[in-house]
């Protein structure tokens, strides 16, 4: 993947237009009650009164209609003058790439952040945003954006290389706690896989295993499937299901993130009144274990735990 892709995104979610409000039904007659017979003079008076009421109602309705037209026209003028609404997602992507290439890094960050807020969870958007944030010296923000890109495209060589490179500029160097070798082997095995891929693999092996099992015991089957082959396919289904569960916990359940401020105090409890343990700096990554009163309890790579302000830590 190059620093910025020249091609813009071709598939974008279309917005749904709201249905117009249904007007209330107009009454065509009224049930006055009684005999329904009125004296002639009183009938004429009522007709005159109703005519006046209709005139007043028509004038009021005209004012409301004029006000409605003015509001609609004003809204259209505001939308037409707004550069944010005038730009499509493709235009925002191209504008961000162009701004980055011209050295307008702050504008590139704004454009790609707008795309992210619009709901475009795309690896190219996060990758380009991470590049721009790194250029601005935002190590923590860049690591979070790169990590979001890797979640969607885990085998992308440029994304993984940039994560390793940007981590070199994080002031805090913490050696990770040694894990059981089987756990390390398994996590390394599923790291190149995404949640979606492992789910599809698990579903595929399930249906294959179910199909060959049914064929095995079908009385009219013309040829037999070895039992060992059936067992092997079921084992593959168990393996891919466990891989899907691991990836889901890694990407959707575990709340990992990074410090996004120059420095922040890590304390022994959720508040400034607790003892200071150490000072964490921009780019230090960790995993949230609990959140309380605007503070995160974070477990850091070396196994240490501490509380820091939620505003100073961005979740991937």
Compose a concise summary of this entry.
With 316 residues, the protein is an alpha+beta fold.
Overall pLDDT score: 79
> What spatial form do the alpha-carbon principal axes imply?
extended
Helix percent band? 40-55%
If strands are numbered along the chain, what order do they take across the biggest sheet?
A: 6-5-4-1-7
Largest sheet: 5 strands, antiparallel
Q: Find the count of extended strands (DSSP E, 2+ residues).
A: 7
Tell me about this structure:
- The chain is α+β, with helices and mostly antiparallel strands.
- Helices cover 53% and strands 12% of the residues.
- Among the domains are: 87-167, Tetratricopeptide repeat domain (Serine Threonine Protein Phosphatase 5, Tetratricopeptide repeat, Alpha Horseshoe); 181-253; 255-315, SH3 Domains (SH3 type barrels, Roll), CATH 2.30.30.40.
- Strands 6-5-4-1-7 form a five-stranded antiparallel β-sheet. Strands 2-3 form a two-stranded antiparallel sheet.
- It is extended.
- The two termini are 21 Å apart.
- The model is unreliable at 1-58 (pLDDT under 50).
Layout of secondary structure:
Elements: H1 40-81, H2 83-86, H3 89-101, H4 105-117, H5 123-135, H6 139-152, H7 157-167, H8 181-190, H9 195-216, H10 227-253, E1 255-259, E2 263-267, E3 276-281, E4 285-292, E5 295-299, E6 305-309, E7 313-315
Antiparallel strand pairs: 1-4, 1-7, 2-3, 4-5, 5-6
